Amino acid sequence: MLKEPIRTSIFDLFKIGPGPSSSHTIGPMKAAFDFLQRANASSEIKQLDIENIMIHLYGSLSATGKGHGTDRAVIAGLLGWQPETCQPDNFTELLKDTEVKYPVKIHENEVFINAKNIVFEKNRYESVHSNTLIFRALSNSNIVFEEEYYSVGGGFIQRKGENVATQNDKEPAFPFSTMNEFKEHLKKQKMTLTELMIANEMLISGLSRKEIFQKIDDILETMHKAVRRGLHHRGLLPGTIKLKRKAPILYQQAKSHASTTDSFMVFLNAYCMAASEENAAGNMVVTAPTSGASGVIPGITFLLRNHYHYDKQKLREGMLAAAAVGFLIKHNASISGAEMGCMGEIGSASAMAAAMLAYCAGKPIETVESAAEIAIEHHLGMTCDPIGGYVQIPCIERNAMGAIKAYNAYLLASSGNTADQKISLDSVIKVMRATGKDMSKKYKETSQAGLALSATEC
Ligand code: SF4
């Protein structure tokens, strides 16, 4: 029987917003904004004198939220800022001055809040997701309005009691929840991946074909702006690690050795790390599928555009192939580092990029599937253990490694007969889910083990 079909929009998967983390920055900003809207829409608290707002962070948000800018994101959302339109410079200024209090407007009340209103809870809270936020509005020291949210990865949020699968009730034209069902549609309808993805997106988002392509162009442009900025920004990244940006150095090296055999890899490393360093700096990036993994697809598409001279249409179609794989992983496993470790973030990005490379090269759907499967297979069990809770080590280099693995997965999938491939994309996604469940919490975005303990912050 068909599982609940995928109803995610391409533009929920690829979202523009400030770095460094989709689950710890974009998700909390959206949750805070949603709380603000709901509080202002509530007639029950309209006549009350709201005197305070408290925000409680649990799980991975509590463990690594400081390094990921969760506190700034919460303030930004309560100020009515949205990820796509907020100004990165204003965003990074938030909470720098501990004396500043920020006005939050609920009905006729203006409540002033700062870092003291955000509690990084030490105790565990048994809820449906490790990334939990609770917002409370108080009047006369009593809680008069409360909402609980889960930041489920890639900037997606779920409100307590809401089923994420049915948040969007629009029916896709060609419902699918697995790669097998996806391929069946292609075969039965004699259609291409592009046609299927566009037909579904038109119904899910209500956009026309032209508008969808325009939005993909905008997403690609934002990705490539991040790459271009990162290739020229030098100096230290924010935070206590004092990590030096490396992308400009790699770029110079690639240009001076442009004729050597490994220059293609050095260029790709530079492009991926450039976008990833911009993410670590809190600048505008695109979740692909998360902010931590926002260097893989921008790096690959920048390479395809500037070295292989792929045209606009080819890149748009490549993005659709990447989205199809991202949907399948999100639906049947997870793209969240707090649930899957880094295989959910870089592993997913690598699989999406591998599918894109195969599809852009004109390969059949079986090769596209195979490329994605191989990329996931070789990220299984990869831990998430960021040093100091910053999306820097191992995250930045991991984007470059994820892209290189994607390229190799595409090459491996393109040779031989795909019918000989023993593992399907659907099965490896199942394995991914089971592996993520079995992994110790210490390796799922808590900075309590692994690399996070191997280096002292300085
Ligand atoms: S290690 Fe991977 S999953 Fe963890 S924060 Fe870094 S990029 Fe995200």
TrEMBL record:
Residues 9-161 form the Serine dehydratase beta chain domain. Its cofactor is [4Fe-4S] cluster. Transmembrane segments: none annotated. Residues 189-452 form the Serine dehydratase-like alpha subunit domain. The keyword Iron applies. One of its GO terms (molecular function) is L-serine ammonia-lyase activity. It catalyses: L-serine = pyruvate + NH4(+). The keyword Repeat does not apply. Keywords: 4Fe-4S, Gluconeogenesis, Iron, Iron-sulfur, Lyase, Metal-binding. Pathway: Carbohydrate biosynthesis; gluconeogenesis. Its EC number is 4.3.1.17. It holds the Pfam family SDH_alpha. NCBIfam families: sda_mono. PANTHER family: L-SERINE DEHYDRATASE, L-SERINE DEHYDRATASE 1. Belongs to the iron-sulfur dependent L-serine dehydratase family. This is L-serine dehydratase. It comes from Emticicia aquatica. The lineage of its organism: Bacteria, Pseudomonadati, Bacteroidota, Cytophagia, Cytophagales. The gene is sdaB.
